[in-house]
Design brief:
The longest helix is centred in the N-terminal third of the chain and has 28 residues. With 128 residues, the protein is mainly alpha-helical. Strand 1 and strand 2 form a beta hairpin. The chain has a two-stranded antiparallel ribbon with strand order 1-2. It has six helices and two strands; from the N terminus they run H-E-E-H-H-H-H-H.
């Protein structure tokens, strides 16, 4: 039972950061629109990525979200749930402040909340 609980906590600590990185990579690679220039033989279209439309404020908000979503990993390393709890409280505030660009990170917040509730994975052989 203890080993199963440790495994569940380990999975919960990793889901939020993995999802968050996946959203960031998708935003950096996938385009929201195309910009086309020229005509005939010089006609060219360039894809505009989601990340390129964020601007400075949006990029700062994404950076804050990325740092907050890594909190369960810090909690696991410190064997303390405080970083996850702080992130679970702060993350919805950031998401609500920048709703249009950060809505994709909402499932990451749910995973961070679950990791905060479950607590960090214990060291192997250590009591919970």
């Amino acid at each position: 039972m203890t080993e199963t609980l440790r495994y569940v906590r380990l999975v919960l600590a990793g889901i939020g950061p993995l999802y968050s990185v996946a959203v960031l990579v998708y935003s950096l690679l996938e385009g929201s629109s195309s910009i086309c220039t020229g005509s005939g033989g010089t006609f060219r279209c360039t894809e505009v990525t989601y990340a390129s439309t964020w601007g400075f404020g949006g990029s700062v908000a994404v950076g804050i979200v990325m740092i907050l979503t890594m909190a369960p990993l810090l909690s696991g390393w410190l064997r303390n749930r405080i970083p996850s709890v702080v992130a679970a409280i702060a993350l919805p505030i950031v998401l609500i402040s920048f709703t249009s660009g950060l809505a994709a990170w909402t499932p990451a917040w749910v995973a961070i909340l679950a990791a905060a509730i479950a607590g960090p994975p214990s060291a192997k052989g250590m009591p919970d």
